[in-house]
Every structure is written in C-alpha cells, then in structure tokens.
Design a protein that fits this description.
Residues 137-148 have a biased composition (Basic and acidic residues). It is an enzyme of class 2 (transferase). Its EC number is 2.7.11.1. The chain has 15 helices and 11 strands. The chain has helices spanning 18-21, 37-40, 43-57, 59-64, 80-107, 170-180, 202-228, 237-248, 302-305, 311-314, 319-339, 377-396, 433-450, 459-467, 476-497, and strands at 157-158, 165-166, 252-261, 265-272, 284-290, 347-351, 354-358, 361-362, 365-366, 410-413, 416-419. A hairpin with a 6-residue loop joins strand 1 (157-158) and strand 2 (165-166). The longest helix is centred in the first third of the chain and has 28 residues, at 80-107.
C-alpha cells in the first residue's frame, strides 16, 4: 500500500430536489483535500504553516516591515547579520513594552503625567504611539493664532495703488482688537471665538477695555473691604487670627459668641483661661473688637486729635492706625477709672484693636442698660446719686470727661451703676472738654427727671456741681457762651505757653480756668 488517505471521503451528493440542497437544516456539503503522508512530513509545509501562524498573530510586522529578511520567503538563518537584526528588533520591542508598563505604573490616575517617549526605540512596526495617545496640550497648533502671521512693515502699509492696506484698515484693526481681548482679566468673560473671524471696532474694544478695568478695580475694592474690615457680628481674618492666638495661648478658654454691636465696635463673650503671674484673668471676659471700617470714625477724630496724650502721634498715623489708638485710649481711660474706684470693666489685655475686659453680667447674660431696666423709685434715686458721685470722681480724680454719658452707656448690675464705653473720654483741658461735660449733664438730668427723681438737678446746676465752677447765667445760651469763653481762654494759654493749665490747685479744688 503506497499511500494512506488522510481525509475521509465525503458522502455522495446524489441527485435530489433543489429545495433539499438549500435547506438550512441539511448537512453542509464539504469537500476534502487529500494529501499523501510524504506531504505531511515535509519540512517546507511546516515552515509555511508556521509563517501563516506568525502572520495571523503579528499582522503589523508583515504589513509595515521593510527588507527581504522579514517577508518570510527568503529567510536565511545562516546569516549572522540577519540574526542580529532580528534579535535587536525583538529586544527593542520588549524594551519599549517595559517602558510603557513603567510609565503607566508611575502615572496611575494622576492628572499630571510623565512620558518616556524620548527613550523609546522607534520602529516602523511600532503602532503604540498612535495619534490617540497624543494629548492636545502637546500640539503646537494654537487655534487663536494665524498659521502664517502677517506683519506690518515699517512703512505702515502693504500693497500698491488701489490694493494698498494700511495699519488702520478696519479689518486688520478688528482682528487685532479681537486678539487683544485675551489680555483682559480672567474674571472678565469674553467668550469663545474659535473658528469665527471676529472683528471688533475700536469703539467697541475701548468700551470693553474700560469696563474690564472698572470691574477689576471694583472686585479689588470689594475683596479688600471684605478682608480688612470687620462687619456686623463678624471679624476679618486678621482679627480672627488674634482671637485664635489668645485661645491657643490659654488666656481664653473659649469664645461663645456676640453679645453686643455698636457704631464703633463688636463685643463678644468669652470664658477666661489660665491666670499668669502678672495677670489675673476673670472667669468671664468681654472682647471688644473695634471696627476697622473708617465710615464710623470720620466725625469722631475730634475726640482724639486734640487730646494732648495722642496729639503728637495723631498727625503721623494713617486712618487705620487711628483705630488702634482709639482702643489704646479706652484702655488708658479704664485704667484711670479703675484706680479711682469707679465701677467699670477691668482691663485684661490689649492686642492692636482688640481689647479684652472683664464681663459685666453673669452666665453669658450681659447686665442690662439703664434705659432697659425697670427700677423702683428708691433704686432710681440711688442710681442718680451714684452717677453724680461717679461724674465728680471722673472729673476731679481721674481728670476725665466721659463725653458720651447717657442711659445707653450705663449698666445696672449688683444694685449699682457701671460705666462703659469710655474710648471717646477726654480731659477737661480739651478744647471741647467743657462742652462735652455740659452735654453729659444734660443727658443725665433729662433721663432722671423723666424717671421721676424729684431731687434731680437741671443741666446747669449739675454742671456746676460736677466741675466746681460757678457759672451764673440765667439762660442756656449765656451759659454755653461762658463755657466757650473758658475754653477759648485755656486754648490761648496753650498756644502762648505751650502747655496745659494746672488742672488741680494745691488744696484739691477743681481746675482753674481763669487767670
């Protein structure tokens, strides 16, 4: 037997109807290719089958390869050069694959990625660096810029005769104005003009430019006002940092919240922290934060610029630093009152425009103002004589005039009156000191007369009782005229001699204003 059949013979497809051959459920008719055993054992057939498998597994190699040694038809394994080239290509392909794995491992899910593209071995068959992997940021094409930019020559025009184009051409200027919009602030939305041949006239561009600058300055002003000013029941970042430092240092235990707001300050309640060797911290504290906005202080500089204690420093400071001086002034005035024994908040510490004092009240509840509390006739009479005594002490012992004394700045706590808000207090030798004192006497007299205190003096009698001056005027106009004359006399003395009059005589009498 010379040959052995490899494939089985197909069944005879006998004659039959046409519908049987086209029946989808029928067995398909297959034709077998018979070959001998010698063909199966042939080495040439094995090489051809291997090449077919390689082409099916690596189609890109065959499609993009160059040179006769990769076609698979003329492979000569006896050539050392050919083997070296094949081995080098295989090594380069493995090297590039390793680089891609390292790159993917390092980048991960990061938005900022690195690339090893410069270290790869580029070959024609390498299709991994396709255009899908190229990021749009790597391209050098700018959609807003012309492919071939045209420059205007020095002479200022292009062309000749009727085709001349100057630098003032409407189309050229319009395109330049559109490109200049990129220089506007990022907050100014100019839209997306890619693919549009936009031309802005000079009038429209100038209007947009002015509006952009105005919006930028407005935004800067709003940001500065928000960052550098205290608002209603709020503090700016710098003030908040001062409060944080006080809490972190242990001076304050915690800050509970806002308890009062006024024209010039915001008052917070806080619990005191650990006491130090030179400082006693009360259990409850009041933090007075002076507002850093200047709107409330435009008409209040007269309280400080003519005060000899701060007059030399006033002219050298900018308006923002004056607010710190205002807080310092209240600290000094409270210290004088405390040394004289007048009921007032105790100063704990001053940090720039933040003044920490003792809290007048209990359990986070502030003491009521005198205008809000309902007192009996005996308590009202008692409060009146307390205030009269405190005004005399303030004038004679502390050498101060409250300058804003009313039922709004007096608290009722522990069956007695407490004075607060003395940042505007001045000395009697102030150019307007006596006017301020007369105004305080008027407020106090009117309040207690309306409260039913029969012993309450009128404003002129109260002024003489507090100051010790004997001004005998029949009406209020003449009374104020004599007060202005005394102030003028004291001001002339200051200008002539360069110093204030002696506020107290040797026997302890009130200030002497006459010559």
């Amino acid at each position: 037997m010379d040959s052995v059949g490899v494939a089985a013979a197909a069944p005879d497809a006998g004659p039959g109807p046409a519908w049987q051959s086209k029946c989808p459920w029928g067995a398909p008719s297959t034709t077998s290719i018979s070959c001998s055993l010698a063909d199966v054992m042939s080495e040439q057939l094995a090489k051809e089958l291997q090449l077919e498998e390689e082409n099916a597994a690596f189609p890109e190699v065959v499609a993009a390869a160059e040179g006769p040694f990769i076609t698979g038809e003329n492979i000569d394994t006896s050539s050392d050069l050919m083997l070296a080239q094949m081995l080098q290509m295989e090594f380069d392909r493995e090297y590039d694959a390793q680089l891609r794995r390292e790159e993917k491992k390092i980048n991960g899910d990061s938005k900022v990625s690195i690339s090893f593209e410069n270290y790869r071995k580029v070959h024609p068959y390498d299709s991994d660096s396709s255009e899908d992997e190229v990021d749009w940021q790597d391209t050098r094409h700018d959609p807003y810029r012309a492919d071939k930019p045209t420059t205007t020559p020095r002479r200022g025009f292009i062309g000749k005769g009727k085709d001349i184009t100057t630098k003032h051409d409407e189309v050229v200027c319009g395109r330049k104005n559109t490109a200049r919009m990129e220089n506007f602030a990022p907050e100014f939305q100019v839209g997306d003009g890619i693919g549009m041949d936009l031309k802005l006239s000079n009038q429209v561009f100038n209007a947009l430019k002015q509006h952009a600058y105005s919006e930028e300055r407005r935004s800067a002003r709003l940001h500065e006002k928000k960052e550098h000013s205290t608002a209603e029941k709020a503090v700016d970042p710098k003030t908040r940092l001062l409060l944080y430092k006080m809490v972190n240092s242990g001076m304050l235990e915690t800050i509970t919240g806002c308890i009062s707001t006024g024209k010039e300050s915001v008052v917070f309640h806080a619990y005191g922290g650990n006491a130090t060797e030179d400082k006693v911290i009360p259990p409850e504290c009041a933090i007075k934060v002076f507002k850093t906005t200047l709107n409330e202080f435009k008409n209040r500089d007269k309280y400080i610029k003519d005060d000899y204690r701060f007059k030399d420093r006033f002219s050298k400071l900018n308006p923002r630093k004056i607010i710190r001086m205002w807080a310092e002034k209240e600290m000094h005035n409270l210290t004088r009152m405390q040394n004289a024994g007048i009921p007032c908040p105790q100063v704990v510490i001053l940090k720039k425009h933040v003044l920490v004092m003792s809290f007048i009240g209990q359990d986070q509840v502030p003491a009521p103002k005198l205008k809000d509390v309902t007192l009996s006739s005996e308590d009202m009479k008692k409060a009146y004589y307390q205030i009269l005594n405190m005004m005399q002490q303030l004038y004679r012992e502390c050498n101060l005039v409250h300058a804003d004394l009313s039922e709004y700045n007096m608290l009722w706590h522990d069956e007695k009156v407490w004075l607060i808000d003395v940042s505007q207090s001045v000395e009697p030798t102030h150019p307007h000191g006596l006017e301020f004192l007369f105004r305080d006497c008027r407020n106090v007299s009117q309040f207690f007369q309306k409260g039913g205190v029969a012993e309450a003096l009128n404003e002129r009698e109260l002024f003489n009782a507090v100051s010790g001056l004997n001004i005998t005027a029949d009406n209020e106009v003449d009374f104020q005229a004599e007060i202005e004359a005394l102030e003028k006399m004291n001001e002339d003395h200051v200008q002539n001699h360069g110093k204030k009059l002696s506020t107290f005589s040797s026997d302890g009498d009130p200030p002497i204003y006459d010559e």
